[in-house]
């Protein structure tokens, strides 16, 4: 997904959200992932809008629908609900942003390794969304995924002379798209 399409998608998402609210729907706005985990759904199929993964950050939000049954909470696309059941994130074109799993690029030194690995483990198309993230451990890419840098970057939080990130190992079928910035 190129930047223009992504920005259009975000604009449409914001318009869709505000128009549904203006029609008097019962769409709840949830401030953070922490609040979603503690929000008690009222009925099966209920939809909520998560504003942001962390309060006030403005990234990692999206629509979630409540389902009955059991699925493992993965911290991004499937979230366990209070009292049973789970919230399922609505994806656009099967795309997950690493922000959807709690990655942050707005705090110096924030370790986004687990969030990015969570996106890799649970999504088929992952994007850095243009962010510049710090990681402290190698990322393991499984086969048959697309990992888009989308003009973002990964930086090591450990010394550059360590063995970390010395070699990159990819399983057969893994696609990585790398876009370089021109200085």
Describe what you observe in this structure:
The chain is an alpha/beta fold. It folds into 2 domains: 3-89, no CATH class; 95-177, no CATH class. Helix content is 20%, strand content 22%. It contains 3 helices and 11 strands, in the order αβαβββββαβββββ. It has helices spanning 3-22, 33-38, 113-122, and strands spanning 28-30, 47-50, 62-67, 78-80, 86-89, 95-97, 125-127, 132-135, 146-148, 153-156, 175-177. The strands form 3 sheets. The chain has a 5-stranded mixed beta sheet with strand order 1-2-3-5-4. A 4-stranded parallel beta sheet has the order 6-7-9-11, with no helix packed on it. A two-stranded parallel ribbon has the order 8-10. A hairpin with a 5-residue loop joins strand 4 and strand 5 (86-89). The longest helix is centred in the N-terminal third of the chain and has 20 residues, at 3-22. It is globular. Mean pLDDT is 79; it is low at 6-24, 161-169 and 178-183.
Distance between the termini: 23 Å
Average pLDDT taken over every residue = 79
Strand content: 15-25%
Q: What is the 3D form?
A: globular
Class per helix and strand makeup = alpha/beta
User: What is the CA-based Rg, rounded?
Assistant: 17 Å
Number of helices: 3
Note the main sheet. 5 strands, mixed
InterPro entries: Pectin_lyas_fold, Pectin_lyase_fold/virulence
